[in-house]
């Protein structure tokens, strides 16, 4: 079994090591000595770039060790580089993460972690995005990725063995997994959950002047402790559950196609 690991926090991010350990655990259990783990991750942090690709300029890639590479590009770039330059054969699975911070609700639309999983799905590969929600329950932990480290392998195994993957579909499924902001001993279970919506979690601007008097604009995130509707991913996470959300890159609002068609007849 061959697994590709990437992320959006960068090649030196601690969450990447957690993802590599999860992949090693899963691959060895399924393939033993034939397991191969490949890592192609951004050379520096790429949080918030979504599904961006470096279409208008080239980027460099450097080998950091056996089957371990850093690319000066986005997470989606890393997947493309792995498939068409780095790896001699296509992977059986792509794992993106483990992201430091949640990619639940509207965060999913900005996430480079999910951008990499989406690119893998568009390339016809099974893909799972893993993210660790941060909050009061993770602040005192020795390992802030404790929940992801403890349950990540089980979630990935169960998705691989039993979840639908829509093999051959034009826009195939990929999975968004968010671990709750608690230690592993406080995790209550795993729940399938739709993508939620947090009120007042919009990104905003904070302006600051530099010592030279020039104005700079900083993008500022909204509060992450706001709940979504009951049963949605954010609320599941804040209640101590791991959320698993099936996703596709198809953005069509199918519930409005009929009414839109009638409008133009």
Could you explain how this protein is built, in words?
Pfam families: SurE. InterPro entries: SurE, SurE-like_Pase/nucleotidase, SurE-like_sf. It is found in: Cytoplasm. It is an enzyme of class 3 (hydrolase). With 265 residues, this protein is of the alpha/beta class. The chain has one domain (2-197, 227-264): Stationary-phase Survival Protein Sure Homolog, Chain: A (3-Layer(aba) Sandwich). The chain is built from seven helices and eleven strands. The chain has helices at residues 14-31, 75-86, 112-122, 136-139, 146-162, 233-238, 257-264; strands at 2-6, 36-42, 61-65, 68-71, 93-100, 127-132, 174-179, 189-192, 204-209, 215-220, 241-247. The chain has a nine-stranded mixed β-sheet with strand order 3-4-2-1-5-6-7-11-8, sandwiched between helices. It has a two-stranded antiparallel ribbon with strand order 9-10. It is globular. The mean pLDDT is 97.
